[in-house]
Amino acid sequence: MESINGRSSGGRPSGAGAAAGAGAGPGGRTFSRRWILGAGATTLLTTGLTACGSDSDSGGGGGTLTAFVYGDDAVKVQQAAVDRFNKSTAARTAKGKVKLERIPGAEYPAKLRTAMGSPSAPDIFFNWGGGSIKDYQEAKQVVDLTDTIENDPALKSGFLPAVLAAGGLGGRHYGIPMRGMQPVILFYNKALFAEHKLQPPTTWDQLQDINAKLKKAKITPFALGGADTWTELMWLEYLVDRIGGPEVFARIQEGDASGWGDPAVLKAAETVKELIDDGAFGSKFSSVAYTNGGAPAVFAKGKAAMHLMGSWEYSTQLGKFPSFAKNNLGWCAFPSVEGGKGDIRNVVGNPTNYWSVNTRAGNKDAAIAFLKDCASETYAKALVANGDIPTTANAAKLLDASPNPEFAKFQYEMVEKAPAFTLSWDQAVGSQTATPMLTEINKLFVGKSSPSEFVSALKELK
After folding, report:
1. How far apart are CA 383 and CA 275, in angstroms?
2. Would you say 354 and 128 are in contact if contact means Cβ atoms under 8 Å apart?
3. Does 7 or 204 have the greater pLDDT score?
4. Residue ranges of E strands in 164-258
5. More confident residue, 59 or 305
6. What is this structure's pTM?
7. pLDDT one-digit tens code per residue, 358-380
8. Which domains does the chain have, with CATH numbers?
9. Which residues partner with 59 through β-bridges?
């Protein structure tokens, strides 16, 4: 998949410092797991809504609906869905069809932003949920799908609840899941663990014991591509969850900046500093990138024993170091923290990508009918064939057809059983918060601010 800044089917641009880049996966695929609107970008939104790109803007007429989609190699799944819908009884009943407009990955967020403030706005559009649609939601440019989902069994029971909820805002649903899940996972080198008689950690104390044994053996405990700030963000996301529970960041995501002052944020920052000072990431992590293959290589070559990374790490390793991926790549949940409020089953990362509907869509009935296809088994099978893990409730039975059924089932069960799935922070908040937040995270990791200074700076973000 094309990448703008790191990971996922869909992108994420540079944030603070060296937060940019692209991670290549197998077959030329790259993984760009998030998108935040660029710092200082003018959001071309209007509260006086303009007409959409459909042939009709009456809200219930016929015509062809335009759907903007991120134009990577996974788009073939969405194109097949469009072709299938346009020939379906549902399309005839709703008197509408869909035309897919593929936007090159590097251009997608900017083109969507511009189009949404113009007469050529799409009726349906691909997005990352959360903060990526906040500006559109505030400008009343995105349809609230909550009641539609509640009143439609196919949609209400068709997706994993944690994923459906993670793409919303303020407890309301504005998107339908349409691509694979992307949780952050603790990967480990099975050969190194076996050699040193180690077991995957389930508690923080166990992790610290593992770190001590690895350092004694002259092995860096964790690979970290600190030249890309989003890799550092993952550590804080999980630590805040495990220490304070998902409610801590939920407050922040809803706009309560005082949430940064929660004791769990300070404790997470202090824990990060302890890891850095203890050499858990080695001494040169800030000059190593994920996006150029540096951190994956450190991990695969046995120079580091573990790697906290999104689920796309498997595909990255399969493309770059296939023998390691097939024989020695292990995975487990991020450990619990003693005395912490967060459940070890909680997940952070990118739940998936979403389809949303423009409030000025010419034929909302046809738009909703098209979105319902994402809950179908046919659509889920197409995702599995593409190497993705569907977020549909019935996907478990389909995963034997995955390129790696064991890893696919681990991911699916991880998300299925998660009491909470916290959206990546830089994707969950608006652009005005995300960029300076990444700056402060980078400063913490490179030693330019203390944990208390880190917290103080974040509390000033609005």
Report:
1. 38
2. yes
3. 204
4. 176-177, 182-189, 220-223
5. 305
6. 0.80
7. 999 989 999 999 999 999 999 99
8. 35-181+352-424 (3.40.190.10), 183-349+430-459 (3.40.190.10)
9. 363
